[in-house]
Amino acid sequence: MDIKLKQIAERLSGLRDALDLSKEDCATACEISLKQYQEYESGEVDIPVSFLYRFSSVYNIELTTLLTGDNPRMQHYSITRKGTGPIVARRKEYQYQSINESFINKAAQPFLVTVSPENKIDQSNGYRHAGQEFNLVLEGRLQIVLNGKSLILDEGDSIWFDSSLPHCMTALNEREAKFLAMIFKIPE
């Protein structure tokens, strides 16, 4: 069993207990089935970053707290040195590296995302999460399927979209692709 996955699942359970919520409450609030929520909290299945983002948004918890167990403390600025952000491997298709986990009350969550060309993604079932997302391709070529529409982005290209629409990314040309992903919360 993936130890990091188990730790995230334990933090989910602990936060739910601390907030005095039932599993049903969390499933309903995060708009997933009770069975799916129970699987996430069990630590036996991959937990999508989109779900963790949703959970953190719904319950006003820093995503960093769920991912790493640390609480962000920086209020004026925060520097993440190249290669030092924690790796979050929540989906086999993507590797997320948090590139700023120490700044508190972020309006956006930045990740460096790596997509391997070996990972073929079921494009009929895209990921969704609340808010908006900005992606900037840093290396390689990327196919983004957004709400059923296929878009090709080359190095230097970017896209900003409503992340409640189903979306997924695939590396093209048998080459790894890297992109900066910024996930923005929508103020309530």
Uncertain stretches:
none
**Terminal CA distance:** 38 Å
Query: Can you count the helices?
Result: 5
Q: From the helix content, strand content and strand pairing, which structural class follows?
A: alpha+beta
Computed Rg: 16 Å
Strand coverage percent: 25-35%
Average pLDDT works out at: 83
SSE string, helix = H, strand = E? HHHHHEEEEEEEEE
Order of strands, widest sheet? 1-2-3-9-4-7
Q: Sheet bearing the most strands, described?
A: 6 strands, antiparallel
Instruction: Report the helical percentage.
Output: 25-40%
- Counting DSSP E segments of at least 2 residues, the number of strands comes to 9
Keywords:
188 residues, alpha+beta, three-stranded antiparallel beta sheet, 5 helices, 9 strands
Please specify the SSE layout and strand pairing.
Blueprint: H1 3-18, H2 23-29, H3 34-42, H4 49-58, H5 63-68, E1 87-91, E2 94-98, E3 108-115, E4 132-139, E5 142-146, E6 149-153, E7 158-162, E8 167-171, E9 177-184
Antiparallel strand pairs: 1-2, 2-3, 3-9, 4-7, 4-9, 5-6, 5-8
Task: Explain briefly what this protein structure is.
The chain is α+β, with helices and mostly antiparallel strands and 188 residues long.
